[in-house]
Amino acid sequence: TQSTRPQRLLGAVQKNATRGDPRSVVQAIDQFCRQKEWAMNVGDEKGCILDSVVSEVNPATVLELGTYCGYSTVRIASLLPPHAKLITLEFNPDFAAIARQVIAWAGLEDKVHLIEGASGDWIPKMTEQFGVKTFDLVFLDHWKDRYLPDTMLMEECGLLRKGSILLADNVICPGTPDYLEYVRSSPRYESQYFKSHLEYTKVEDGLEKSVFLG
Ligand SMILES: O=C(CSCCNC(=O)c1cc(-c2ccc(F)cc2)cc(O)c1O)c1ccc(O)c(O)c1
Ligand SMILES: [Mg+2]
Hints:
Blueprint: H1 5-16, H2 22-35, H3 43-57, E1 61-65, H4 71-77, E2 85-90, H5 93-105, E3 112-116, H6 119-122, H7 126-130, E4 137-140, H8 147-156, E5 165-168, H9 171-175, H10 177-185, E6 189-197, E7 204-212
Parallel strand pairs: 1-2, 1-4, 2-3, 4-5
Antiparallel strand pairs: 5-7, 6-7
Helix pairs in contact: 1-2, 1-5, 2-4, 3-4, 8-10
Bound molecules: the ligand O=C(CSCCNC(=O)c1cc(-c2ccc(F)cc2)cc(O)c1O)c1ccc(O)c(O)c1 and magnesium ion (MG).
The ligand O=C(CSCCNC(=O)c1cc(-c2ccc(F)cc2)cc(O)c1O)c1ccc(O)c(O)c1 binds next to helix 9.
């Protein structure tokens, strides 16, 4: 039977990356996506912006919405201080199965909780299930029409505190117009746009970094 693109991406990691070396996993995926097949990872260019925000925030608790194959999960987890926790949510079981193996190849399974399910169902259960009070950093990279409702849900559930950082991928392409309008016009957020390109292409895209003001 035919393999899927995520399965072929995993194969490239297992063939070209060194077990336990997150940077080599990231490099193997970027090489696969540039030379073989495009895939919707945040990519190397936006990935460097992601790395700088993670390093600046130095978060103890991170929520990632949209794991896909675990590329950004590996980038973030490899920069976390000891005992920090990254919870990543993936709706698609096939993506989740591949991501688990990519995260394990990088040797980062102890820093990552991968949950299979819908963000709308799981966000209200974060505190009771994982003992998380608030998130220092949230990386939004799932369905683009879920960014705004899930942000409002996180506010309602008290998962954001004064200074929590939201970092959103794809705010230009595919685009998240209602989310952008919200974080840019709300007095409860201070927003900043980091212009970049859609992963592995010359098409404009960017990341929006928004600080929750409480
Ligand atoms: O795909 C999903 C939703 S989660 C992935 C969200 N991410 C994106 O959609 C996404 C898309 C693009 C992009 C794609 C085509 C273009 F032409 C241009 C840009 C880029 C990104 O960086 C992204 O993050 C899913 C869920 C459950 C399922 O059962 C299922 O079959 C599929
Ligand atoms: Mg994305």
